[in-house]
Amino acid sequence: MSMSARLRLAVTAAAAGAFTLALVPAVPAAPSVPGAVALSPVVAAHRAVPAMASGPLRAIRPASAGDPVLAAPISTSDCVSQFQRACYSPLQYRTAYNLDPLYRAGITGQGRTIVIVDSYGSPTIQHDLDVYSAQWGLPSSQVEVVKWGQVPAFDPKNADMDGWASESTLDVEAAHAVAPGAHIVLLETGVSETEGPVGVPEMMSGINHLVDAGQADVVSMSWATSEAMFPGFDVGDYTSLTTLRYAFVNAARHGVTLTASSGDGGGDSTKLDAAWPAGDPLVTAVGGTELHLNDQGVRTAPDSAWSGSGGELSKVFARPGYQNPARSVVGTHRGTPDVSMAGSPNGALWLYSSFDPANTGWTADGAGTSESSPLFAAVVALADQAAGHRLGVIDNDLYRLYAQHSPGLVDVTTGSTGPNGYTAGPGYDQATGVGTLDATGLVAALAHRH
Fold first, then answer.
1. Position 5 in a domain
2. Is residue 358 part of a domain?
């Protein structure tokens, strides 16, 4: 699997936050996650992380490290005690991102559609979402699977398919965690997106079809490829990339919001080469933060930049007008990320999957910015519902609200990204963009504007 195929597998030593995942033979007798259903708390298996080829965006955690697959989630304090890192439930995210006031007002994403774009997909996505929803007391949702092209039959022994199934599970469950009332469409393509243009044409044509059919309000893309991997980049010919953005142009024309993971390589301040599609001016680049929560989801410290979160300057795209408030940071180039949400392995979201019969159960193995994009897409779906219509290129509003010091945006001022990355500080930076968010405040600001 190439470097760009699955962002959630990419964690450098620095990006991993200098923790070691300690595998233990057993789990405490009873889970204490708020709202969790008590199941048999034993370690079911250890899922190995499939290897990927080297490349410019991300490095990978060695397969030998593995990740535990549990029969039931455990509390944050138990995760810290046993695995030397935190793990969180969607109920803790509700508190951390101040989502409950929206839910009490009936703002759940009802009537809005989030499109998730992944190669191959997962054959058990509906069952897994049902189990996930029941565990946390969420209403389940019927996932609409759209197979675009000849999607091969799933083989759990195929590392590439296994990786994409895991990615699809993450994307769907993370989006549902934040917008439980939204309709989710999983767009599955039959060619694995790897590096450069490979697999991208199928994704673009699928997105374009759903936009034309009126079946998309928000599109989340938890994959990335380096601009430099497109043919012609070295000689200043970017047409192999720019001719693929027709779906994005069409989405913007229809008022559809696009989000994408900013990458998991820690950013690179030494060159002009952004992750794409995050670096596209029509796409909101979502970086990763590290949350510091107790068992109830209350912050024990402010969010910090996750060390693996991607952030770059584009060589293909000039600074868009909406980034003028950040011109002192990005200069004349499109800069990423725009905004950030949870992505650190130290505080990963619990997920459930059964696509691999030998590794069925719960994981919280660290999703990177693959988690951040669907989380933010779900917030946009909430804002769409509150506004009564689509919000389109959301960056126009994010930077306006940033310039106005909106309480819906929360500045992240601590942490840094990678050895060649960026340091978070007051105001816009390429570690976390305009910062993270208070969902109730941001949704209210977006809905009022529109």
1. no
2. yes
Pairing of strands 144-148, 183-189: parallel
For 290, phi then psi, to 5°, come to -115, 120
What count of residues does the chain have?
A: 450
Identify the CA nearest to 295 among candidates 99, 39, 27, 88. 88
Query: How far apart (Å, rounded) are the C-alpha atoms in residues 26 and 49?
Result: 21
Please check whether residue 290 is in contact with residue 415, taking contact to mean a CB–CB distance below 8 angstroms: yes
Count other C-beta atoms under 10 Å from residue 327's C-beta.
Answer: 12
Work out how many domains the chain is built from and give that number. 1
Give residue-wise pLDDT tens across range 314-345.
999 999 999 999 999 999 999 999 999 999 99
Amino acid letter, residue 412: V
Query: What distance in Å separates the CA atoms of residue 360 and residue 356, rounded to the nearest whole number?
Result: 6
Q: What is the pLDDT of residue 449?
A: 57
Q: Does residue 11 lie in a domain region?
A: no
Taking every pair of C-alpha atoms in the chain, what is the biggest distance, in angstroms? Answer: 61
Q: What is the CATH number of the domain that holds 382?
A: 3.40.50.200
Tokens 């027709």 sit on residue: 246
Q: Cβ(199)–Cβ(189) under 8 Å?
A: yes
Structural tokens at position 178: 């934040």
H helix or E strand, kind and range, residue 155: none
Q: At what angle do helices 439-449 and 369-387 cross, to 10 degrees?
A: 50
Provide the 10 A C-beta neighbour count for residue 279.
29
End-to-end C-alpha distance for the chain, whole angstroms: 42
CA–CA gap between residue 72 and residue 88 (Å, rounded)? 13
Tell me the pLDDT tens digit for each residue of 222-264. 999 999 999 999 999 999 999 999 999 999 999 999 999 999 9
Does 29 map to a domain? yes
- What pLDDT was estimated at residue 337? 98
- Residue by residue, DSSP assigns 411-438 as ---S-B-STTS-B--SS-BTTTBT-EE-
CB atoms under 10 Å from CB of 405, counted, come to 8
